[in-house]
Amino acid sequence: MKEVRYLKFVFDLDGTVCFRGQPICEKILQSLSELQSVGIEVIFASARPIRDMLPVIDEAFHHYTMIGGNGSLIAKDGKVIKSHSFSINEINEINNLIDQYNSTYLIDGEWDYAYTGPDNHSILKNLDPANLANNVSLEFLNSVVKVLILTSDNMDELAGKLLKLDVYVNKHSNEDVLDISPGGINKWSALKSLGIKENTYIAFGNDANDITMFENALHTIMIGYHDQLALLAKENISLDGDYEQKIATRISKLSEKYRLLQI
């Protein structure tokens, strides 16, 4: 007998289902539970590493599949099961550019991290809020899966130099930081590694790091507005009024529409 497989729903976190660094609200959590109850798998896919995803996702959802670090980490049951790291040569090249441009950074290993940024940087409100990891020197990270350049003498020139390396560089629209992942690693590559095919999932996102995920989705919902993402979005939910309720309602409506779709 052929296995019945249903559509999946994939959610970015920050700016998509959680806001201002706060955990996902109860009304959205309820709509996510409804998806699971009708056989639709829910996957979280974030720029955050897994350790920083867990505190904003209710513990009842920690067994869900999570993609962290823009695709460099995959976790199930709250534990990392796959990771993609930079090569030693790539880290050396990035580190040389960091020194050349007097940059500060947040560099993530699979769990621990190295932070040299300002004491008042906005990234700190989302950095290991549950104290699950250790802040260590870069040389003590066994592998590096993600690099955030926080400050630099010349961010634009540094970005140009990084783009010449075999790495993926993303500049978040709402923050003046450079987000660097290993070459070929993004949210779509992580979904593919999980055996997920094109046009078999619904994607919710809000920023440039969701582009690859949107390009290969059956249906796409942009939260807020982003110039590049808007070109790929089938619909948009604006961040005005009770937008969390609007998001929860839309998830429930889409659940009704797609729950009987087999893939």
TrEMBL record:
Pfam families: Hydrolase_3 (PF08282). One of its GO terms (molecular function) is phosphatase activity. InterPro entries: HAD-like_sf, HAD-SF_hydro_IIB, HAD_sf. Signal peptide: none annotated. Gene3D superfamilies: 3.30.1240.10, HAD superfamily/HAD-like (3.40.50.1000). GO terms for cellular component: cytosol. It comes from the Bacteria. NCBIfam families: HAD-SF-IIB. This is HAD family hydrolase. It comes from Gracilibacillus halotolerans.
